[in-house]
């Protein structure tokens, strides 16, 4: 029983961070002025998933920065982020595989994250801003490769 209580308290801050991300991270769920309860439920459901994904990416990139980005990003997202990163200061030496940390930092740079030594790792708000740009970049990449 004491182990369960300790585990609950240990994990409680993650739940609180998720709520904070949902409320202020980029969705501002409390500020939505939708006309029906159904619209609000759909919006909260969608934003909950995005909030969880970004929070998970934030912590995973800090806990295990060397892991592959394929568990957090789609192949299209990775491709776009890698190409964008090569137009800037190189993230990795040539020949080394891309990591989750590299992908997260590249996404954060879409929102203005500079990635200097003293900056630390990007937070959820910064990632949210970068994430909002990523689907459009993936769409544009797909359209430009397959013009019909």
UniProtKB/TrEMBL annotation:
Stored Pfam families: Dimer_Tnp_Tn5
Residues in Transposase Tn5 dimerisation domain copies: 50-133
Gene3D superfamilies xrefs: Transferase Inhibitor Protein From Tn5, Chain (1.10.740.10), Transposase Inhibitor Protein From Tn5, Chain A, domain 1 (3.90.350.10)
SUPFAM superfamilies: Ribonuclease H-like (SSF53098)
Name of this chain's protein: Transposase Tn5 dimerisation domain-containing protein
Organism taxonomic ancestry: Bacteria, Bacillati, Bacillota, Clostridia, Eubacteriales
